[in-house]
Specification:
Helices cover 22% and strands 24% of the residues. The strands form 3 sheets. The chain has a 6-stranded mixed β-sheet, sandwiched between helices. Strand 6 and strand 7 form a beta hairpin. The chain starts with a strand and ends in an 8-residue tail after the last helix. About 4% of the residues have low confidence.
Protein backbone atom coordinates (compact mmCIF):
# COMPACT_ATOMS: atom_id res chain seq x y z
CA UNK A 1 0.00 0.00 0.00
CA UNK A 2 1.07 3.57 -0.59
CA UNK A 3 2.04 5.71 2.37
CA UNK A 4 -1.16 7.76 2.36
CA UNK A 5 -3.53 4.84 1.82
CA UNK A 6 -5.36 2.26 3.89
CA UNK A 7 -8.05 -0.38 3.74
CA UNK A 8 -11.67 0.54 4.42
CA UNK A 9 -15.10 -1.04 4.14
CA UNK A 10 -17.90 0.43 2.02
CA UNK A 11 -20.87 1.04 4.32
CA UNK A 12 -23.23 2.97 2.02
CA UNK A 13 -23.61 4.17 -1.56
CA UNK A 14 -25.59 7.25 -2.50
CA UNK A 15 -25.65 8.47 -6.11
CA UNK A 16 -22.02 8.37 -7.28
CA UNK A 17 -20.56 8.76 -3.79
CA UNK A 18 -19.31 6.05 -1.47
CA UNK A 19 -19.21 6.13 2.31
CA UNK A 20 -16.45 4.02 3.82
CA UNK A 21 -15.35 3.34 7.38
CA UNK A 22 -11.88 2.92 8.83
CA UNK A 23 -11.23 1.43 12.23
CA UNK A 24 -9.00 3.86 14.11
CA UNK A 25 -7.37 1.13 16.18
CA UNK A 26 -6.24 -0.62 12.99
CA UNK A 27 -4.14 2.36 11.88
CA UNK A 28 -0.40 2.19 12.49
CA UNK A 29 -0.11 5.97 12.77
CA UNK A 30 -3.17 7.49 14.41
CA UNK A 31 -3.69 10.91 12.77
CA UNK A 32 -6.07 12.02 15.51
CA UNK A 33 -4.92 13.79 18.64
CA UNK A 34 -7.16 11.77 20.98
CA UNK A 35 -7.24 8.03 21.41
CA UNK A 36 -10.29 6.71 19.62
CA UNK A 37 -11.49 3.12 19.62
CA UNK A 38 -14.14 3.64 17.00
CA UNK A 39 -14.79 3.84 13.27
CA UNK A 40 -14.38 6.98 11.21
CA UNK A 41 -16.48 7.51 8.10
CA UNK A 42 -15.17 9.08 4.88
CA UNK A 43 -16.92 10.38 1.80
CA UNK A 44 -15.26 8.94 -1.32
CA UNK A 45 -15.27 9.04 -5.07
CA UNK A 46 -13.77 6.26 -7.20
CA UNK A 47 -10.84 6.29 -9.61
CA UNK A 48 -11.93 6.21 -13.24
CA UNK A 49 -9.90 3.08 -13.88
CA UNK A 50 -12.26 1.09 -11.65
CA UNK A 51 -15.10 1.76 -14.09
CA UNK A 52 -12.82 1.20 -17.08
CA UNK A 53 -11.95 -2.24 -15.71
CA UNK A 54 -15.65 -3.08 -15.49
CA UNK A 55 -15.69 -3.26 -11.69
CA UNK A 56 -18.62 -2.10 -9.59
CA UNK A 57 -18.27 -1.08 -5.97
CA UNK A 58 -20.86 -2.54 -3.61
CA UNK A 59 -21.76 -2.13 0.05
CA UNK A 60 -19.63 -4.56 2.04
CA UNK A 61 -16.65 -4.33 -0.30
CA UNK A 62 -13.20 -4.00 1.21
CA UNK A 63 -11.47 -1.21 -0.70
CA UNK A 64 -8.15 0.60 -0.79
CA UNK A 65 -8.50 4.37 -0.36
CA UNK A 66 -5.91 7.02 -1.23
CA UNK A 67 -5.53 10.81 -1.16
CA UNK A 68 -6.97 10.79 2.35
CA UNK A 69 -8.04 14.14 3.77
CA UNK A 70 -8.00 13.51 7.53
CA UNK A 71 -9.48 16.93 8.27
CA UNK A 72 -12.48 16.95 5.93
CA UNK A 73 -12.86 13.16 5.93
CA UNK A 74 -12.66 12.68 2.20
CA UNK A 75 -10.74 10.15 0.10
CA UNK A 76 -10.60 8.33 -3.23
CA UNK A 77 -11.18 4.61 -3.78
CA UNK A 78 -8.36 3.21 -5.91
CA UNK A 79 -8.93 -0.54 -5.69
CA UNK A 80 -11.59 -3.13 -4.81
CA UNK A 81 -10.41 -6.22 -2.97
CA UNK A 82 -11.63 -9.71 -4.03
CA UNK A 83 -15.04 -10.68 -2.63
CA UNK A 84 -15.96 -13.85 -0.77
CA UNK A 85 -19.56 -13.63 -2.03
CA UNK A 86 -22.11 -11.24 -3.48
CA UNK A 87 -25.90 -10.98 -3.34
CA UNK A 88 -27.72 -9.28 -6.21
CA UNK A 89 -30.85 -8.32 -4.29
CA UNK A 90 -30.26 -6.89 -1.80
CA UNK A 91 -26.93 -5.75 -3.25
CA UNK A 92 -24.36 -6.64 -0.56
CA UNK A 93 -20.88 -8.18 -0.72
CA UNK A 94 -18.88 -10.29 1.75
CA UNK A 95 -21.82 -11.37 3.89
CA UNK A 96 -21.06 -13.85 6.70
CA UNK A 97 -24.55 -14.57 8.05
CA UNK A 98 -28.08 -14.07 6.77
CA UNK A 99 -30.93 -13.20 9.12
CA UNK A 100 -34.30 -13.38 7.39
CA UNK A 101 -36.79 -11.34 9.40
CA UNK A 102 -40.50 -12.22 9.40
CA UNK A 103 -43.16 -11.15 11.87
CA UNK A 104 -45.26 -13.55 13.91
CA UNK A 105 -48.28 -11.30 13.41
CA UNK A 106 -49.09 -8.03 11.64
CA UNK A 107 -48.30 -9.08 8.95
CA UNK A 108 -48.85 -12.81 9.43
CA UNK A 109 -46.13 -15.38 8.85
CA UNK A 110 -46.57 -16.50 5.21
CA UNK A 111 -44.84 -19.80 4.36
CA UNK A 112 -44.93 -19.10 0.61
CA UNK A 113 -43.32 -15.68 1.04
CA UNK A 114 -40.75 -17.07 3.49
CA UNK A 115 -39.80 -19.79 1.02
CA UNK A 116 -39.17 -17.26 -1.74
CA UNK A 117 -36.70 -15.43 0.52
CA UNK A 118 -35.09 -18.72 1.53
CA UNK A 119 -34.56 -19.72 -2.11
CA UNK A 120 -32.81 -16.40 -2.74
CA UNK A 121 -30.63 -16.68 0.36
CA UNK A 122 -29.68 -20.31 -0.32
CA UNK A 123 -27.97 -19.37 -3.57
CA UNK A 124 -24.89 -17.90 -1.87
CA UNK A 125 -24.38 -20.90 0.42
CA UNK A 126 -24.36 -19.18 3.81
CA UNK A 127 -25.84 -20.06 7.19
CA UNK A 128 -29.37 -18.73 7.48
CA UNK A 129 -31.29 -17.85 10.61
CA UNK A 130 -34.99 -17.00 10.51
CA UNK A 131 -35.89 -14.25 12.97
CA UNK A 132 -39.48 -14.20 14.17
CA UNK A 133 -40.12 -10.60 15.17
CA UNK A 134 -43.02 -9.22 17.23
CA UNK A 135 -43.02 -12.37 19.37
CA UNK A 136 -44.96 -10.46 22.04
CA UNK A 137 -48.04 -10.80 19.84
CA UNK A 138 -48.18 -14.60 20.26
CA UNK A 139 -48.26 -16.94 23.24
CA UNK A 140 -45.09 -18.77 24.27
CA UNK A 141 -46.67 -22.04 23.17
CA UNK A 142 -47.46 -20.66 19.70
CA UNK A 143 -43.93 -19.28 19.35
CA UNK A 144 -42.33 -22.60 20.31
CA UNK A 145 -44.58 -24.39 17.84
CA UNK A 146 -43.44 -22.07 15.06
CA UNK A 147 -39.77 -22.50 15.96
CA UNK A 148 -40.14 -26.30 15.88
CA UNK A 149 -41.89 -26.03 12.54
CA UNK A 150 -39.01 -24.06 11.02
CA UNK A 151 -36.53 -26.59 12.41
CA UNK A 152 -38.24 -29.32 10.38
CA UNK A 153 -37.42 -27.28 7.28
CA UNK A 154 -33.74 -27.47 8.21
CA UNK A 155 -33.21 -23.94 9.50
CA UNK A 156 -32.09 -22.28 12.70
CA UNK A 157 -34.56 -19.75 14.10
CA UNK A 158 -34.95 -17.25 16.93
CA UNK A 159 -37.91 -15.28 18.25
CA UNK A 160 -37.36 -11.64 19.17
CA UNK A 161 -39.41 -8.73 20.43
CA UNK A 162 -38.47 -5.08 20.54
CA UNK A 163 -41.18 -4.41 23.13
CA UNK A 164 -40.44 -7.23 25.57
CA UNK A 165 -36.70 -7.59 24.78
CA UNK A 166 -37.25 -11.30 24.22
CA UNK A 167 -34.25 -12.79 22.37
CA UNK A 168 -32.42 -9.47 21.95
CA UNK A 169 -29.32 -10.41 23.97
CA UNK A 170 -29.14 -13.80 22.26
CA UNK A 171 -29.32 -12.09 18.88
CA UNK A 172 -26.52 -9.65 19.82
CA UNK A 173 -24.32 -12.59 20.84
CA UNK A 174 -24.91 -14.27 17.49
CA UNK A 175 -24.26 -11.14 15.45
CA UNK A 176 -21.03 -10.48 17.34
CA UNK A 177 -19.58 -13.70 15.90
CA UNK A 178 -19.66 -12.34 12.34
CA UNK A 179 -18.20 -9.36 10.48
CA UNK A 180 -21.25 -8.68 8.31
CA UNK A 181 -24.74 -9.92 9.20
CA UNK A 182 -27.41 -9.29 6.59
CA UNK A 183 -30.93 -8.40 7.73
CA UNK A 184 -33.56 -8.74 5.04
CA UNK A 185 -37.24 -9.53 4.72
CA UNK A 186 -40.60 -8.07 3.68
CA UNK A 187 -41.69 -4.53 4.50
CA UNK A 188 -43.44 -4.06 7.82
CA UNK A 189 -41.92 -6.98 9.73
CA UNK A 190 -39.90 -4.70 12.01
CA UNK A 191 -36.36 -4.82 10.60
CA UNK A 192 -35.76 -1.13 11.22
CA UNK A 193 -37.26 -1.25 14.71
CA UNK A 194 -35.04 -4.21 15.50
CA UNK A 195 -31.90 -2.44 14.28
CA UNK A 196 -32.81 0.65 16.31
CA UNK A 197 -33.07 -1.64 19.34
CA UNK A 198 -29.71 -3.26 18.67
CA UNK A 199 -28.03 0.05 17.90
CA UNK A 200 -29.36 2.76 20.26
CA UNK A 201 -26.98 5.33 18.77
CA UNK A 202 -28.63 4.87 15.35
CA UNK A 203 -32.18 6.16 14.96
CA UNK A 204 -33.59 5.03 11.62
CA UNK A 205 -37.06 6.17 10.54
CA UNK A 206 -39.74 3.55 11.17
CA UNK A 207 -42.82 3.10 9.00
CA UNK A 208 -46.38 2.24 9.95
CA UNK A 209 -48.26 -0.91 8.99
CA UNK A 210 -51.20 -0.54 6.62
CA UNK A 211 -54.31 -1.89 8.43
CA UNK A 212 -56.02 -2.66 5.12
CA UNK A 213 -53.17 -4.41 3.27
CA UNK A 214 -51.23 -5.61 6.33
CA UNK A 215 -48.07 -4.34 4.67
CA UNK A 216 -45.49 -1.93 5.95
CA UNK A 217 -44.12 1.15 4.25
CA UNK A 218 -40.55 0.85 3.01
CA UNK A 219 -38.54 3.35 5.07
CA UNK A 220 -35.12 1.96 4.09
CA UNK A 221 -34.15 3.23 0.64
CA UNK A 222 -30.66 1.77 0.27
CA UNK A 223 -28.39 -0.85 1.80
CA UNK A 224 -26.26 0.44 4.68
CA UNK A 225 -23.91 -1.13 7.20
CA UNK A 226 -24.08 -0.17 10.87
CA UNK A 227 -21.41 -1.02 13.43
CA UNK A 228 -22.37 -3.08 16.44
CA UNK A 229 -19.19 -4.03 18.31
CA UNK A 230 -15.88 -5.82 17.79
CA UNK A 231 -15.92 -4.90 14.09
CA UNK A 232 -19.31 -6.58 13.65
CA UNK A 233 -21.71 -4.84 11.29
CA UNK A 234 -25.40 -5.17 10.46
CA UNK A 235 -26.57 -4.65 6.89
CA UNK A 236 -29.98 -2.96 6.82
CA UNK A 237 -31.76 -3.49 3.50
CA UNK A 238 -34.89 -2.17 1.77
CA UNK A 239 -37.93 -4.38 2.31
CA UNK A 240 -39.44 -6.17 -0.68
CA UNK A 241 -42.33 -8.59 -0.56
CA UNK A 242 -41.80 -11.03 -3.45
CA UNK A 243 -38.19 -11.83 -4.41
CA UNK A 244 -37.61 -13.04 -7.96
CA UNK A 245 -36.94 -16.76 -8.45
CA UNK A 246 -33.41 -16.57 -9.85
CA UNK A 247 -32.67 -20.28 -10.18
CA UNK A 248 -33.05 -22.93 -12.88
CA UNK A 249 -35.11 -26.11 -12.59
CA UNK A 250 -32.04 -28.35 -12.05
CA UNK A 251 -30.75 -26.21 -9.17
CA UNK A 252 -34.04 -25.52 -7.38
CA UNK A 253 -33.71 -28.76 -5.39
CA UNK A 254 -30.48 -27.51 -3.79
CA UNK A 255 -32.32 -24.54 -2.27
CA UNK A 256 -34.48 -26.87 -0.14
CA UNK A 257 -32.65 -28.43 2.85
CA UNK A 258 -35.39 -31.08 3.03
CA UNK A 259 -34.11 -32.45 -0.30
CA UNK A 260 -30.42 -31.76 0.23
CA UNK A 261 -30.31 -33.70 3.49
CA UNK A 262 -31.84 -36.74 1.77
CA UNK A 263 -29.47 -36.57 -1.19
CA UNK A 264 -26.51 -36.82 1.19
CA UNK A 265 -27.74 -40.29 2.19
CA UNK A 266 -29.23 -41.66 -1.03
CA UNK A 267 -29.35 -40.94 -4.75
CA UNK A 268 -32.13 -41.16 -7.26
CA UNK A 269 -31.84 -43.60 -10.18
CA UNK A 270 -31.22 -40.81 -12.69
CA UNK A 271 -28.88 -37.85 -12.16
CA UNK A 272 -31.31 -35.38 -13.76
CA UNK A 273 -34.19 -36.35 -11.43
CA UNK A 274 -36.30 -33.35 -10.44
CA UNK A 275 -38.10 -35.30 -7.67
CA UNK A 276 -41.56 -35.06 -9.15
CA UNK A 277 -43.00 -38.41 -10.17
CA UNK A 278 -39.95 -39.88 -11.91
CA UNK A 279 -39.29 -43.64 -11.90
CA UNK A 280 -36.52 -44.42 -9.43
CA UNK A 281 -36.83 -41.20 -7.40
CA UNK A 282 -35.63 -41.95 -3.88
CA UNK A 283 -36.74 -38.69 -2.25
CA UNK A 284 -39.40 -38.88 0.45
CA UNK A 285 -42.01 -36.28 -0.41
CA UNK A 286 -43.86 -36.26 2.88
CA UNK A 287 -42.76 -32.83 4.17
CA UNK A 288 -44.56 -29.53 4.60
CA UNK A 289 -42.97 -27.46 1.85
CA UNK A 290 -42.97 -30.13 -0.87
CA UNK A 291 -46.11 -28.70 -2.53
CA UNK A 292 -44.37 -25.32 -2.70
CA UNK A 293 -41.30 -26.95 -4.24
CA UNK A 294 -43.49 -28.60 -6.88
CA UNK A 295 -45.25 -25.35 -7.70
CA UNK A 296 -42.00 -23.42 -8.12
CA UNK A 297 -40.50 -26.29 -10.09
CA UNK A 298 -43.42 -26.17 -12.53
CA UNK A 299 -42.83 -22.44 -12.91
CA UNK A 300 -39.12 -23.01 -13.57
CA UNK A 301 -39.97 -25.62 -16.21
CA UNK A 302 -42.53 -23.38 -17.88
CA UNK A 303 -40.25 -20.34 -17.74
CA UNK A 304 -36.63 -21.60 -18.21
CA UNK A 305 -35.25 -18.14 -17.46
CA UNK A 306 -35.55 -16.59 -13.97
CA UNK A 307 -39.08 -15.30 -13.61
CA UNK A 308 -40.98 -12.78 -11.55
CA UNK A 309 -44.59 -13.34 -10.56
CA UNK A 310 -47.11 -10.51 -10.58
Amino acid sequence: MKENSCLAIVVAIKANYFFVEISIKSLKNNPFSSEKDTNVRFLCTARNRINYQGEQIRVGDLVLIESIDWINFKAVISQVQPRTNYMIRPSVANVDKIFLVFSCKKPDFDIDQVTRFLITAEQIDLDICILLSKSDLLSEQAINSQLKRIKTWGYDSLSVSVKSNNGINTLIDRISSFKISLFCGPSGVGKTSLINKLLPHVRLPEGNLSKKLQRGSNTTRHVELFSLANESRIADTPGFNRPDIMVGKENLQWTFPEIKSQLLQKRCKFRNCLHKDELGCEINKDWERYSIYRRYLDKCIKFPRPYQED
